[in-house]
Amino acid sequence: MSRPFIIGLTGSIGMGKSTTAKMFADAGVPVWDADAAVHRIYDVGGAAVEPIRALFPSAIIDGAVSRDALKVWMSEDQDALTKLEQVVHPLVAADRAEFLAISSAPIVLLDMPLLFEIGAHEHVDLIAVVSAPAEIQRERVLARGTMTEEQFDTILAKQVPDADKRARADVIIPTVTMDGAQIAVQEVIDHVKERLADA
Q1: Which is more confident, 117 or 53?
Q2: What is the location of CATH 3.40.50.300 in the chain?
Q3: Beta strands 107-111 and 31-33, pairing class
Q4: Angstrom distance (rounded) from CA 160 to CA 81
Q5: Closest-CA residue to 166 (of 137, 194, 141)
Q6: CATH class of segment(s) 1-30+106-199
Q7: What CA–CA distance (Å, rounded) separates 199 from 194?
Q8: Distance (Å) of CA 144 to CA 38, 141, 147, 171
Q9: How many helices (H) and strands (E) does the chain have?
Q10: Which of 6, 114, 158, 182 could form a disulfide with 124 if both were Cys (CB 3.0 to 4.6 A apart)?
Q11: Would you say 25 and 75 are in contact if contact means Cβ atoms under 8 Å apart?
Q12: What are phi and psi of 131, to 5 degrees?
């Protein structure tokens, strides 16, 4: 069986990536969500629970990994993030590989905030980047009320800059308006279907 055509969707925080991924899903494209995979491996019985317990026992609360406890660990140990990533990244990669192995759809989408950061862009057939002006991005994130400006700036500093992502994209999906994003998503799907028909 031939493998599906893989679209890698990425974008910086507040750029509308999750909303855009849902548009692909609504159009019938199966979506693998990296954040959802992390939730699965952190949950009770998840693959990350025991390895993280071995590193930092107090991060496990009621049989699941506590993100709040992880934040405490990271504030106390400068090597904590590296240790955590060494556990989490291979488990998330295995979850992604399983999704691809069982998918029978001609086109699938990988929703990955760290597509470039972990080198996963090298394993997709088309890179789609969601993008909006910086002031809209900041407005959206702060409107959620879940983080301060300082926390937002810290996250932003760790991500590949939006301009760099756009420069490396095969397709840019503008997310200033829902309608504009919807049109761009359909254009990407139509473009991929044409490529597959010509192959």
Answers
A1: 53
A2: 1-30+106-199
A3: parallel
A4: 17
A5: 137
A6: alpha beta
A7: 9
A8: 21, 6, 8, 27
A9: 9, 7
A10: 6
A11: no
A12: -150, 145
Residue 133, C-beta contacts closer than 8 angstroms, at least 6 positions apart: 176
SS percent in the chain: helix, strand, coil, step 5: 55, 15, 30
> What is the structure's pLDDT at 158?
84
The span from the CA of 197 to the CA of 185, in Å, is 18
Q: Which residues of 23-52 are buried (b: 16+ CB within 10 A; e: fewer)?
A: bbeeeebbbbbbeebbebbbeeebbbbebb
The CA-to-CA distance between both ends of the chain, in Å, stands at 15
Q: Do residues 114 and 11 touch, judged by C-beta distance below 8 A?
A: no
Q: List the structure tokens of 108.
A: 């699938």
Q: Residues 72-109: pLDDT tens digits? A: 898 899 899 899 999 999 999 999 999 999 999 999 99
Q: Which residue has 């090298």 as its token pair?
A: 122
- Check residue 165 and give its pLDDT: 96
* Whole-angstrom distance, CA of residue 191 vs CA of residue 42: 37
User: Which tops the pLDDT comparison, 124 or 74?
Assistant: 124
What's the half-sphere exposure (Cβ side, CA atoms, 13 Å) at 101? 6
Residue whose C-alpha is closest to residue 60's, from 80, 45, 74: 45
